[in-house]
Specification:
alpha/beta, Rossmann fold, 2 domains, 5-stranded parallel beta sheet, 4-stranded parallel beta sheet, binds phosphoric acid mono(formamide)ester, binds norvaline
């Protein structure tokens, strides 16, 4: 990432040093935030365009507030209002926006739309979630894990249980970069993306990370220090919600499953959470401190990403 290619689209594009740099930078920014001192000069006079083709609470608010705190401003651009929503090509949108803005954050469906936007932009592009990946969230989760479990991520064992979706894919890329042990448990029919499984395995060889897929949630959470889950029906899959409830029922993160994890296990969730589906109310509330710190940390981590990409 960073100055090398100017975009933040996938954790796969970063080297381990860049991941570490962003996590340390985010910690500086969080410390500054909690001592009441903003860092208003880093992006003074800069503008971020935020294109949303899907809903958002955390991503929208944390990017917008983050830009403000760095001295810049952010524009919320709903695809319902943009000509993009009426069929203007993404490559033309990229070329126009590059003349007004200093950076673009986009949340969309097909990952190829983000890649096309970046290829045709002369300003940094940040992936705010695609069907394939959610790198801002997973970088934030690594930051949160460091806070709760210490900086030595390669000593930790993590399990992701549920749908092999954008979060699962990004956890694979993230764990591979920091040398963590990660087991992903999904039904065979909903495994993580095949290319992500392949390429994250190659990344893992360089850092000593141990990545595994299993169909068995109990095997995945065995002795885990961290268990993460996510919705069973991602944005765009609303019509499949009822069918998915049946498919994923054995993958619910509940007290029974957590008996197999380490005693000090923490449970993470990127939110929004669907209690009674991927996570039970009691497990969610027992881990609320972690989960809402995770949500706050989006702000600090994304400020680090934006400042790194957009600073003069
Ligand atoms: N976790 C996350 O990305 O939340 P939003 O969909 O609210 O942005
Ligand atoms: N997998 C979820 C993540 C939401 C932040 C989705 O894509 O809807």
């Amino acid at each position: 990432m960073a100055k090398d290619n100017g975009d933040f689209i996938s954790l796969h594009d970063l080297n381990p040093g860049q991941v570490e740099y962003l996590l340390d930078f985010a910690l500086d920014l969080k410390t500054t935030y909690h001592t009441g001192k903003f860092t208003p000069d880093l992006l003074k006079g800069k503008t971020l365009g935020m294109i949303f083709e899907k809903s958002s609470t955390r991503t929208r608010v944390s990017f917008e507030v983050g830009m403000y705190q760095l001295g810049g401003s952010a524009l919320f651009l709903s695809s319902r209002d943009l000509q993009l929503g009426r069929g203007e090509p993404i490559k033309d949108t990229a070329r126009v926006l590059s003349r007004y803005l200093d950076g673009i954050m986009i949340r969309t469906f097909g990952h190829d739309r983000i890649v096309e936007l970046a290829q045709n932009s002369t300003i940094p592009v940040i992936n705010g979630l695609s069907d394939l990946l959610h790198p801002c969230q997973v970088l934030t989760d690594l930051f949160t894990i460091r806070e709760f479990k210490g900086k030595r991520l390669h000593n930790l064992k993590m399990a992701y249980v549920g749908d092999g979706n954008n979060m699962a894919n990004s956890y694979l890329y993230g764990a591979a970069k920091v040398g963590m042990t990660l087991t992903v448990a999904t039904p065979k029919s909903h495994k993580p993306n095949a290319k992500v499984l392949r390429t994250s395995a190659l990344d893992a060889r360089k850092t000593g990370a141990e990545l595994k897929w299993t169909e068995d949630p109990i095997e995945a959470v065995k002795d885990a220090d961290i268990v993460a889950t996510d919705t069973w029906a991602s944005m765009g899959q609303e019509d499949e919600h009822e069918a998915r409830k049946k498919i994923f029922a054995p993958y619910q993160v509940n007290a029974e499953l957590l008996k197999h994890a380490d005693k000090g296990v923490i449970v993470m969730h990127c939110l929004p959470a669907y209690r009674g589906e991927e996570i039970t109310e009691d497990v969610f509330e027992d881990n609320a401190e972690v989960i809402f710190e995770e949500a706050e940390n989006r702000l600090h981590v994304q400020k680090a990403i934006m400042a790194t990409l957009m600073m003069d």
